[in-house]
Amino acid sequence: MRCQAPHPVPQEGPMQGEHVLGALPVQWHKSLFNITPWTIVVTDARIIVARLTPEIQKQAVDAQVQEQGGGFLKRMAVAATSGFTMHKRYLTMDPEAVLTETPENWWVDAHGVSQVTVTEGRWISDQHRHRKQNDHQLLIVTQQGKFSYTFAPLSMNAADAANLLAQVFGTTVKLR
Asked: Which among 83, 117, 123, 162 is most buried, taking Cβ atoms within 10 Å?
């Protein structure tokens, strides 16, 4: 299921004492060849859906290269592997800083969600009997609409993602 990008949810003000519980790297498929990386930051009060812009990715790579030292080859290696760890940057960020990082970022709490479904990716085998798992699906149904994302089994398995989201949304989260 495809959906349009959400509009930011108005916020009454900072949530006091809010803590980040985890981060799930996801992709939003605008069209077949237009895929945008996002991170779902799970706090003890809500989820924040944060867009990973090319500028944010470049800044993170630059910071890591500067920290570790190195030249052109180091930059290439860091850039090639950064997609697997980029979501971890949100684990130590203040939730309000995550929310205001880009204008597209939005949040929703348990009261604004009627359904969260995590669907495990199917296992397939090739002609050489090598098994591979397709991406998992995540569907969030809010008062603003339905939002569908995918995430790779290598980044987080479906059960762990469902358990992380259940810390905020409770029994609204279903694993299929």
From this structure: 162
Strand partners for 50: 39
Cα–Cα distances (Å) from 149 to 27, 116, 131, 133, in that order, read 5, 11, 23, 16
C-beta of residue 141 within 8 angstroms of C-beta of residue 115: yes
At 18 the three-state DSSP class reads: coil
Tell the residue number behind the tokens 């030292």, with chain if given.
Answer: 69
Tell me the pLDDT tens digit for each residue of 48-87: 999 988 888 777 777 777 777 777 776 676 666 656 667 7
Pairing of the two strands 106-109 and 123-125 = unpaired
72 sits in which H/E element:
helix 72-81
Q: What H or E segment, with its residue span, contains residue 66?
A: helix 54-68
For residues 98 and 48, the answer to whether their CB atoms sit within 8 Å is yes
Which two structure tokens, joined as six digits, stand for 36?
A: 């945008």
Angle between helices 72-81 and 54-68 (to 10 degrees): 130
Name all domains of the chain by residue range, CATH numbers in brackets.
20-175 (2.30.29.30)
